[in-house]
Amino acid sequence: MRLYNYIGSANGYKVELALAQLGVEYQRVEIAIFQGEGQRPEFLRRNPVGRVPVLELDDGGCIAESNAILCHLASGTHLIPAAPRDYTRMLSWLFFEQSEIEPVLGSARFWILTGRSAERGAELDRRLAWARKSLAVLDQHLAKNAFLVENQYSIADIAMYAYGHLADDAGIPLAEYPAVHAWCRRVEAQPRYIAGPGAYTADALLTG
Amino acid sequence: MRLYNYIGSANGYKVELALAQLGVEYQRVEIAIFQGEGQRPEFLRRNPVGRVPVLELDDGGCIAESNAILCHLASGTHLIPAAPRDYTRMLSWLFFEQSEIEPVLGSARFWILTGRSAERGAELDRRLAWARKSLAVLDQHLAKNAFLVENQYSIADIAMYAYGHLADDAGIPLAEYPAVHAWCRRVEAQPRYIAGPGAYTADALLTG
Question: Is B160 helix (H, G, I), strand (E, B) or coil?
Answer without folding.
Answer: helix
